Amino acid sequence: MKRILIIVVIALAIPIGGYFGYGYYQDKAAAAEEAKKIEEIALKRFMTDTITTNLATNEFSIVQFAVEMEEVEGREQLDHYSPEVRAAVISTMTSLTREDVQGPKGLETLETMMQTAVQDIVPDHKVVRVMVTEFKVQ
C-alpha cells in the first residue's frame, strides 16, 4: 500500500512540477522579449535638447521632445539633422500662444505639429510619434 501511494505521489508530482517549471521559463522568455522590445524602441528614439524660445506673445516656453522613428536608420539620419529639428521647434513654438498649448488637447496639437515638421525634415523615414517630454510656459 505504501508503495502504491509513493508511486501515485511521484506520478502526480512530475506533471505538476513540469507545469510550474514551464510557466516559470515562459515568464522569463516573455520578460526577455519585452526587454528586447524596449531596447529596440530606445534605439529608434531621438531626443531633442531642452529648447527655450519665445511664444507668439511676450511669454516664453521651455520644451523638449522625443521623436520615435519607425527604423533605427531613421533615427540615425535624424541625428544629422538636429539643427533643422531645433529650428522647426523654434519656428513652431513662436507661432503659438499660451492658450494654443494649454491642456492635454494643446499638447496633443503641438505633438502633431512637430510630427509633421520632423516628417518634412526626413521624408524618407517614417516618424511614428512625437512626445513632449518637458514643457513649461512662463
UniProtKB/TrEMBL annotation:
Record membrane topology: Single-pass membrane protein
Location of the protein in the cell: Cell membrane
Matching Pfam families: FliL
GO CC aspect terms: bacterial-type flagellum basal body; plasma membrane
Example GO BP: chemotaxis
Keyword Ribonucleoprotein: no
Keyword set, alphabetical order: Cell membrane, Chemotaxis, Flagellar rotation, Membrane, Transmembrane, Transmembrane helix
Family membership noted in the UniProt record: Belongs to the FliL family.
Function: Controls the rotational direction of flagella during chemotaxis.
Name under which the protein is recorded: Flagellar protein FliL
Organism: Tetzosporium hominis
